[in-house]
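Lines hold sequence, tokenised fold; shown next:
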Amino acid sequence: MDQPFTTTGTEPASTAVPLVLALPKGRILKELGPLLARSGIHPAADFHDEKSRRLRFETSDPMLDVVRVRSFDVATFVAFGAAQIGICGADVLMEFDYPEIYAPLDLGIGKCRVSVAEPAGQPAADRARLSRVGVATKYPNIARRHFAARGIQAEVVHLNGAMELAPAMGLSNLIVDLVQTGSTLKANGLVETEVIAPVTSRLIVNRTALKTQPEAIGAWLARFRAALEAA
């Protein structure tokens, strides 16, 4: 059984500042549970209480706190140094492409894909003749880059949800979205026509923090690597 661990640093606990690990809310957080435990991360009891209003939690290690934020915000917290370490999907990293972020570990969880989907029965040749196309998505940068590489200008309608409604309601020709099983697409009359990129969750690190606190962050990277090998 994993045992709670304590800091071994020489700096007095009263003056040392805990590292912050940013974690995504929702489905991925549930998948992360066993990996966090194997890494020796045991957050406060109310961390797992969905009714808790707290967003920052102490852990069994006095030198590590965790924050619970929206999946799209994890990368921003880490890039701007509010958190030194984080866990987020490769889709988020692709969308924001922050140079301040280093992503050393693929955690192999949260498997899905960023894909193009369009109304079922729409002739495949139609899009090949277009110079521009209407795209509903929460990934405007990914969508624009993807279609630009094919010589197509993407007219993006930025939505944060319910992308599947957009083509039927005249907002766009197609969508770019995360796909796991494809059941939601099917239920809304869409078909997946192209996979842009596979997605898994990654452990990410702020590059400046890695330079200024190499021992502390390196120790956590080692713990996560060991936890992945023990899976």
Summary: The chain is about 30% helix and 30% strand. The CA atoms of residues 136 and 163 lie 6 Å apart.
